[in-house]
Write a structure and sequence with these properties.
The chain is an alpha+beta fold. The protein contains seven helices and 13 strands. The longest helix is centred in the middle third of the chain and has 23 residues. One of its GO terms (molecular function) is pseudouridine synthase activity.
Length: 320
């Protein structure tokens, strides 16, 4: 029944976005598939209401009216075109929880472009590799960009952003409850903030290519590409971003994401039902303030203007 199908469309689900596909086209495609699935189901029988309607009196030649008992359909329960119901509120709750996302970001050393992308307009070329031929090295060149240097820079970036996260959370870390939240990774900004990196590490280093894993919040694609550019500068070289891939969005991972062949009503209903307990538990944990946590007094912060500089380990202006 179509009404039963609608009843199972209250919640959140994840889909896999193929590279190059615009998010709006993805959303429209999913909506169209949902409508097709709902329209293909057998509509429910209209609910009947008893009404007293005027009609001619039987057996009488006079034009007299009497009340006749009959049944008419009510329009209240007819199918309507809906979204995913209460899931819209859950999306708002998910946004207010300031959950982190996880990315793999691939960089390419040796050049800089105007938009920090590999295929952008070339601005500069630099070296990253062999700078010396030393007998002690068997005649081989040495790299001035090394894994050790990259790891040190990533540690500085993470430390800078962790300090900023505490600042934007506006929590008094002198309390035991706030300290426990910090240890368990539950500290979140009180409002919208600049991009904050909660974790960053190198997964692969094979010059000129390197692969990073980044956990962050309030990010944009351009800020992640710029992060690669700034890392290149800190390495006394240049770098462009060749790939950005999101692997986790809050409590949804790639394992939860529906492939394009699964963008249909039964698959989406199943995904919503499977994720519902986890969504409720994670949102309750993330939105519930710790007992006894205290906010530091003070004026409001400029949430949208200033934040940690990604590569320098100091605070500065974030450019979008």
């Amino acid at each position: 029944m179509a009404s039963a199908g609608l009843a199972r469309l209250h919640g959140l689900f994840a889909v896999y976005k193929p590279p190059g596909l615009k998010w709006k086209h993805l959303r429209d495609t999913v909506e169209l598939q949902l409508l097709k699935g709902l329209n293909a189901e057998k509509p429910p029988a209209p609910e009947q209401h008893v009404r007293f309607l005027p009609g001619p009196m039987e057996g009488s030649e006079k034009k007299e009216l009497t009340l006749t008992v009959t049944s008419v359909p009510t329009l209240v329960d007819h199918p309507l075109v809906l979204g995913v119901g209460h899931g819209r509120k859950l999306l708002t709750d998910m946004y207010n929880a300031h959950l982190t996302k996880e990315y793999t970001v691939r960089g390419l050393l040796g050049k800089a472009t105007d938009d920090f992308c590999e295929d952008g307009r070339l601005v500069e070329k630099t070296t990253y590799g062999e700078i010396a031929q030393e007998p002690s090295m068997g005649g081989r060149g040495c790299y001035h960009v090394t894994r050790e240097k990259l790891d040190r820079i990533l540690a500085l970036i993470q430390g800078s952003h962790q300090k900023a996260l505490v600042m934007y959370s506006n929590l008094d870390l002198q309390t035991q409850e706030a300290y426990e939240m910090a240890v368990s990774g539950l500290i979140r900004p009180m409002n919208k903030s600049p991009m904050l990196i909660t974790g960053i590490r190198c997964l692969q280093f094979a010059p000129p290519e390197f692969l990073l894993e980044v956990q962050c919040m309030h990010e944009t694609q351009k800020q992640l590409r710029r992060l690669v550019h700034e890392i290149g500068l800190e390495l006394k070289s240049t770098a462009v971003c060749s790939q950005v891939r999101r692997t986790r969005d809050g409590f949804f991972t790639l394992d939860d994401a529906l492939l394009r062949t699964q963008w249909d009503l039964p698959s989406i209903q199943g995904a919503i039902q499977a994720a519902a307990p986890r969504v409720a538990a994670e949102l309750e944990k993330s939105l519930r303030p710790g007992p006894g946590t205290q906010l530091l007094p003070g004026p409001g912060r400029p949430w949208d203007s200033e934040g940690p500089n990604s590569a320098l380990g100091q605070e500065g202006q974030v450019r979008h």
